[in-house]
Design goal:
Radius of gyration of chain C: 19 Å
Largest sheet of chain B: 10 strands, mixed
CATH topology of chain C: AttH-like fold
Shape of chain C: globular
Structural class of chain B: alpha+beta
Oligomer: heterotrimer
Helix content of chain C: under 10%
Order of helices and strands of chain C: HEEEEEEEEEEEEEEEEEEEEEEEH
Shape of chain B: elongated
Number of strands of chain C: 23
Strand content of chain B: 5-15%
CATH class of chain C: Mainly Beta
């Protein structure tokens, strides 16, 4: 198994105002497989992805990445695995505005010490970014920016790609293109994909789908 | 990995070169002002050390004759007996209405006096042979040029203080008509051993041994501390800029930092990157700052040297050397400053939650709680400032007071401005006005650092300006009182003195002997003067405190007046006995102000002086009261009748001009630093407004969309800058006045030994207000202009972009 | 002897610095306004033992080769230089006559030196012809009338004293022979172009006295040589420096010889052979040869400290070797001056002086 999630619980807030967000979520993902997480706003989709992406720690439960339990790791340990194993396409982890498209594409790979110029070229071509490589993010449209984010997430050849509403801000046509590319590249790279979305159409394109309601899977 | 992280962070500056320039310039300016002061102090210290090393054990003996002049054969015999001695002539070269201090040295024997005359520069055959060469500071050369025809050739020397003319003793003797007489023999007592003691060889001469370094360091210590404090203030102002720029950069890079973290960059790598970046800035800005500082110091040093010489008699070279102690300190402060300014960013980067909103916030959150906290800290600092005088004394305590005061004022400023804006919001009507005030309040946090810098600079300007102007006013008044006589006459010897006195008694309204003797006064070495009972003293003498019958007591020989310095140092009270050397005491009947004199001084009745100091009284000088219209004629008559020295008759105006020029030099440096500090603050303002402008579009776009034109918005931006400048200036006024009070009543008393009354100069404040508004407007102009020229598309983009 | 220029250099060291590069130490300048030596001089004594203000430069130059009671060799130098900025005397401060004193004391291990500067006219430095007295500060070279017999030359009995930081000396000098006159009866030519000086000596002193060294007083005795020379422009423009010797030979004869080194590598030589009875024979350019045999590093430069000196006309072929190779006069104008021992066709002791060995920039900047 690529990812095993077992009984995850997470709550936010203090004391009486403490709001449980996840109440015992368990799931698994094989290498190369894809999983859509759907649910209403506030159902805990993002939180689940944050926990799996090692951006946050659960209150209870366990996550195993390639068989290794990662829930007890310290900050540096989680950073190491994020760098090497996980690709993120989140809305709030925008592109670095002061780096060019090319710089953004290569950023994670460079951080992980796995920079591969050929692979970056391939990604840029496949993502239709070849003509924009020297541009800055602010000079790109939203769809182009999101394609750069996808490329950046895959540049270090992660085992797992996490995408949180990757097409949320895009029109239908553009989101189809981005989604196609993401799936295609994941398949080519042999990466597992977990994507949070509230779009059924998008969710249907993935191999499996789970639905979150009130912090529980259904 | 660290390379990639660093490159990612640094790429920010490539996109924001203006911000980068702000940061580097700010840090450079801060370093430059600090370095320049350090360089000046280091040069002065080195000069003291060098002088003391050149003089062997750091002491020099100067021999003078009680009757005024010494025959040069006395000096020659000392040389023949093996003493390392050099003769010196000092006099005043009076040319039309200007007085120059003329010093004649004997370069061939001047191993001892060389250090004191500023080196042997320009000493060649022409210097030693008729007509000789006069050396003077470039400014003085210009003054001498008018009289070129009557004088030997003049040569500029950067090493000499203004107003002083140095020449060979032969030339000086000729110009001052001194014949074989010299004024002083300067001896290096440690140069040679086993000599017959001076007491045996020249018992008739007065020996004054100056143990140089210690004395000079002690005297000048407070002056240097003063400079250092100013340098530190300038540095603080500069640091505000750096702090603001670094803080802004952090906020702008917040999302980048979060992205880097999300992509798996460990916190320590981020922290290390930020530190390396800060260090690199420090090195670059430090180098620029040290170079700039060298320039500033080189420009200021001649004035400082002149001040030190004029005020304390300490000789400092006018040329600046590159010394590791100051350039290292420049780099150190740059690094310290950069790291200090970065510390908060680093701390925030280290503790930044990974999942907080990626939105860029206004870079310091404006909250009531924060303002209350700032106000609290400010009040605490004011309380501390009020407490310090009660707890400690000394120059250091004075500066601690100033530091607490200024820091408190700076920290309290944003809270004060926010309060004022709140009140104003409640008072105004109209949508635009309300929006304007609300928007101004929202901008406060972003501008507060620049405004603090501006307020510090303004307060320092008001404070120091008030101090200097008060001092000048007091000093001029004091000169008028003190120099009441129309003419001052110096005679060659006792016989001539008596003849001149008889001559004048018949022609002048009054002849006031200015006779004196060296003596300990209340345990301090000083000079005692004798005065006759005359209305000139009763009406004019600048008494600070005195018994009502003080002058009667003096006339009766039953009391003594001392100058303010000795009064404060000895802590005397009226009526208390003052010891006047060798066991004699007289009750203190009054205290008079005596500016510009570091030493103790006392006044007795003339008869009392002659009785007590029979053997050592110098009775060569007189003040002459005469109708001012007749002063010129009397001067000519005196010169025609007597063979007086060249500087034998001086009129009141010349003495005043000379004294005032010494005074002006004393505060030239302070003035220059003041202007520099203000410029730095203006730059801070400019930097903040420019960087803020780039972040303000989201706030302006909705207002624009609601129907205000870009030009209208730009005018409002200018108005805002002006309003904030005025408010800051208003806040700086009381701070500046308290600063002036502290300088006059605390620091000056410790540094110079005299306390001065505080005078107010509202015109100066208004000028400063105009300057502050102008600086703010200039600073705001560029961003406002950019706003006017902004194409609508950019406003529209704000709505399109999800930020 | 060619100890010219020291005073000029001394003044330049005080003034603007390395302005002159022409000739050695700037001596190539013309002598405007100053008197120039002319052939067939008539000396009048004691007056001519005193100063000649009309000439630019003049000196009273004493060197003594001495021996302690334990046989240790010592050397002593005492010199008073006069330099006129203008060719006249003056009253009080206004005189253009300047004075410089040099004192040296050489032991086999250490060389001590000190200098004094003074202006004339004010009683700090000067020379009186009768009774003879040359002085600067507390240093003096004065006649001892109680040891002079009737009619004897004023320089025949002298006392000399000087003091420096770590040394002092006081010596009695008694001449056993007459004054001798170099060149043509005291007119000494210094170059092929005819530059010349007035030059006479008293080379016949027997010396006794005491040296004060850091280790204590040393009683010494030996021989001394006094040079008197004055002129206004003794060096040719192409002359770089000189090597000069005064030799007391065991035979009782004396030799004064010098070579002036020229920019073209050639030398101009001159020599005086003085018999025990005081008869002087002058030898013109070429009669004397001086060949450097060995150099030493002295004050950062190479200086010859062993010489071969040949005067074939008198069957003289000797090696002259420094008693202390580091006899460096570290004064405003620095030069080498120290005692030597003589071996070869003749034995004896003497003094060696060398100038112009400063290399590159050092010759111009050595002076502070």
């Amino acid at each position: 198994m690529l990812i095993e999630v077992d009984g995850l619980e997470k709550a936010y807030g203090q004391g009486a105002e403490r709001q449980p967000v996840l109440r015992g979520v368990s799931l698994g993902l094989e290498p190369g497989a894809s999983l859509a997480v759907t649910g209403e706003s506030g159902s805990g989709k993002s939180t689940l992805l944050h926990l799996i992406g090692l951006l946050d720690t659960p209150d209870a439960g366990e996550i195993r990445l390639k068989g290794e339990t990662v829930t007890g790791l310290d900050d540096a340990g989680r950073a190491l695995r994020r760098r090497h194993q996980v690709g993120l396409v989140f809305q709030q982890f925008n592109l670095v505005p002061s780096l060019t498209v090319e710089g953004n594409l290569a950023l994670q790979a460079r951080l992980a010490g796995q920079h591969d110029a050929e692979w970056i070229d391939t990604l840029a071509d496949r993502l239709g970014l070849a003509a924009f490589r020297q541009r800055y993010p602010e000079q790109l449209s939203g769809g182009q920016q999101q394609r750069v984010a996808v490329g950046r997430a895959l540049a270090a050849r992660p085992a797992l790609l996490l995408a949180d509403e990757p097409t949320g801000n895009l029109d239908e046509e553009t989101s189809d293109q981005v989604l196609d590319l993401m799936l295609e590249l994941c398949a080519d790279a042999g990466a597992g994909l977990i994507m949070a979305t509230h779009s059924r159409i998008a969710a249907d394109r993935l191999s499996r789908r789970v639905h979150l309601t009130g912090g529980r899977l259904s | 990995m660290i390379g990639t992280a660093l490159a990612t962070l640094v790429s920010h500056w490539r996109r924001k070169p203006g911000q980068l320039a702000t940061l580097v310039i700010g840090l450079s300016l801060a370093t430059a002002l600090w370095t320049s002061v350090q360089a000046i102090n280091a040069e002065a210290r080195a000069s003291y050390d060098q002088a003391s090393a050149a003089l062997g054990g750091g002491s020099v003996i100067s021999l003078t004759a009680p009757e005024g002049r010494i025959h040069r054969s006395v000096w020659a015999q000392l040389r023949r007996d093996g003493w390392d001695a050099s003769p010196r002539i000092e006099g005043e070269l009076v040319l039309a209405d200007t007085v120059f201090a003329l010093i004649g040295v004997e370069p061939l024997s001047a191993s001892t006096s060389q250090a004191m005359v500023g080196g042997g520069e320009g000493v060649g055959p022409a210097f030693l042979t008729a007509p000789g060469v006069l050396l003077a500071a470039p400014e003085t050369v210009e003054g001498l040029a008018a009289h070129q025809a009557d004088l030997p050739p003049v040569q500029a020397s950067a090493q000499l203080p203004r107003g002083q003319v140095l020449t060979d003793i032969a030339t000086a003797a000729r110009l001052l008509d001194r014949g074989d007489q010299i004024d002083q023999i300067v001896i290096n007592p440690d140069a040679r051993e086993g000599l017959t003691p001076l007491a045996v060889l020249a018992p008739q001469l007065d020996r004054v041994e100056t143990t140089d370094t210690g004395e000079v360091s002690r005297l000048t210590g407070s002056f240097h501390l003063n400079l250092s404090a100013f340098g530190f203030l300038s540095f603080a102002v500069g640091l505000f800029i750096v702090y603001a720029a670094v803080g802004l950069a952090f906020e702008q890079r917040r999302s980048t930092l979060r992205t880097l973290r999300a992509l798996g960059t460990p916190v320590r790598v981020i922290v290390a990157s930020l530190l390396i970046e800060a260090f690199a800035f420090a090195l670059v800005a430090g180098a620029v700052g040290v170079l700039l500082g060298y320039g500033v110091a080189s420009a200021l040093l001649p004035d400082v040297a002149a001040t030190l010489r004029g005020l304390y008699g300490a000789s400092v070279s006018g040329e600046l050397s590159v010394r590791p102690d100051w350039w290292l300190s420049g780099f150190a402060i740059a690094i310290l400053g950069a790291l200090g300014a970065t510390a908060q960013s680093v701390r925030r980067a280290a503790t930044m939650p990974l999942l907080a909103s990626g939105q860029m916030r206004a870079w310091a959150l404006a909250s009531t709680r924060r303002y209350l906290l700032q106000a609290g800290i400010a009040l605490a600092l004011f309380a501390l400032a009020a407490l310090i005088p009660q707890l400690a004394s000394g120059v250091l305590a004075g500066f601690a007071l100033l530091a607490s005061l200024l820091l408190g004022a700076a920290i309290g400023l944003p809270a004060l401005l926010a309060g004022v804006l709140n009140i104003a919001t409640r008072l105004v009507r109209g949508a635009v006005a309300e929006w304007f005030l609300a928007d101004t309040r929202q901008q406060l946090p972003g501008l507060s650092m620049a405004l603090m810098a501006l307020m510090l600079a303004l307060a320092a300007n008001i404070g120091v300006g008030t101090m200097v102007s008060s001092f000048r006013l007091t000093f001029e008044g004091w000169l008028d009182q003190r120099l009441a006589a129309e003419l001052y006459v110096t005679t060659r010897d006792d016989a001539q003195s008596d003849a001149v006195r008889d001559f004048l008694e018949a022609r002048a309204d009054a002849v006031l002997p200015i006779w004196s003797a060296d003596s300990d006064i209340a345990g301090q070495p000083g000079e005692v003067f004798g005065v006759v009972d005359h209305a000139t003293y009763r009406e004019n003498w600048p008494l600070i405190t005195a018994r009502p019958d003080a002058w009667d007591q003096i006339a009766a020989g039953e009391g003594v007046l001392v100058n303010e310095q000795s009064w404060r140092r000895a802590g005397l009270a009226l009526g208390e006995p003052v010891s006047l050397g060798e066991g004699a005491t007289l009750p203190l009947v009054g205290v008079y102000s005596d500016y510009g004199n570091p030493n103790a001084q006392a006044i007795l009745g003339l008869d009392g002086l002659v009785d007590r100091y029979a053997g050592t009284v110098s009775r060569l000088r007189y003040g002459v009261r005469v109708d001012p219209d007749e002063a010129q004629a009397l001067t000519e008559a005196l010169r025609a009748q007597f063979d007086l020295p060249a500087d034998g008759v001086i009129d009141q105006a010349s003495v005043k001009a000379f004294s005032l020029s010494v005074f002006e030099r004393t505060f030239a440096v302070t003035g220059a630093l003041n202007v520099l500090t203000l410029s730095v603050a203006a730059f801070a303002m400019f930097a903040s407004l420019t960087t803020l402008a780039s972040m303000r579009l989201p706030q302006l776009a909705p207002v624009w969309a609601l129907g205000l034109t870009a030009a209208h918005l730009a005018r409002l931006e200018l108005l805002r800058a002006g309003v904030l400048a005025v408010l800051t200036w208003l806040a700086a006024l009381p701070v500046g006045l308290v600063l002036a009070w502290a300088l006059l009543a605390v620091v000056n008393v410790e540094a110079f030994g005299w306390r001065l009354p505080l005078h107010l100069f509202p015109m100066d404040w208004l000028r400063l207000a105009a300057l502050a508004i102008l600086a703010a407007l200039i600073a705001a102009l560029l961003p406002a202009r950019a706003l006017v020229r902004k194409p609508p598309r950019e406003f529209l983009q704000i709505f399109a972009q999800e930020r | 002897m060619v100890r010219v220029g020291l005073l000029l250099v001394c003044l330049w060291s005080l003034c603007v610095g390395p302005a002159h590069t022409q000739g050695f130490a700037g001596l190539g300048t013309s002598a405007d306004g100053f008197a120039a030596p002319t052939p067939d001089p008539v000396f009048v004594f004691p007056a001519d033992h005193g100063p000649h203000p009309a000439y630019r430069i003049e000196w009273w130059y004493l060197t003594a080769v001495l021996e302690g009671e334990d046989g240790t060799p010592y050397g002593v130098q005492w010199t008073l230089f006069r330099n006129a900025l203008e060719p006249h005397d003056g009253e009080g401060w206004q005189t253009p006559q300047l004075w410089m004193g040099h004192a040296g004391l050489t032991t086999p291990e250490t060389h001590y030196a000190d200098e004094r500067l003074a202006r004339g006219g004010v009683g700090v430095a000067g020379v009186e012809a009768a009774p003879f007295s040359a002085f600067i500060d507390e240093w003096s070279l004065e006649s001892a009338p109680e040891r002079l017999s009737e009619g004897e030359d004023a320089l025949s009995a002298l006392n000399v004293r000087a003091r420096g930081d770590a040394f002092a000396y006081a010596l009695e000098l008694n001449a056993t022979g007459p004054l001798v006159f170099h060149g043509a009866d005291g007119f000494s030519v210094k170059s092929a172009e005819g530059q010349a000086s007035y030059y006479y000596s008293q080379p016949f002193y027997e010396v006794e006295g005491v040296l004060e060294l850091p280790s204590g007083p040393v009683t010494v005795s030996g021989q001394a040589w006094l040079d008197r020379e004055y002129s206004s422009q003794p060096l040719s423009e192409n002359q770089l420096g000189w090597d000069w010797v005064s030799l007391h030979l065991d035979s009782g004869a004396k030799l004064m010889g010098f070579q002036l080194r020229q920019t073209d590598g050639e030398v101009y030589t001159s020599a005086s052979w003085i018999t025990e009875q005081g008869v002087l024979t002058a030898f013109e350019d070429g009669a004397l040869t001086m060949t450097a045999l060995e150099t030493a590093r002295v004050a950062g430069r190479a200086v010859p400290v062993r010489w071969r000196v040949q005067l074939p006309a008198r069957d003289l072929d000797v090696e002259v070797e420094a008693i202390n190779a580091q006899s460096w006069m570290d004064t405003r104008f620095a030069y080498w001056e120290g005692p030597v021992r003589i071996r070869g066709s003749h034995g004896g002791r003497g003094y060696l002086e060398m100038t112009g060995y400063e290399t590159d920039a050092s010759s111009e900047t050595a002076a502070p």
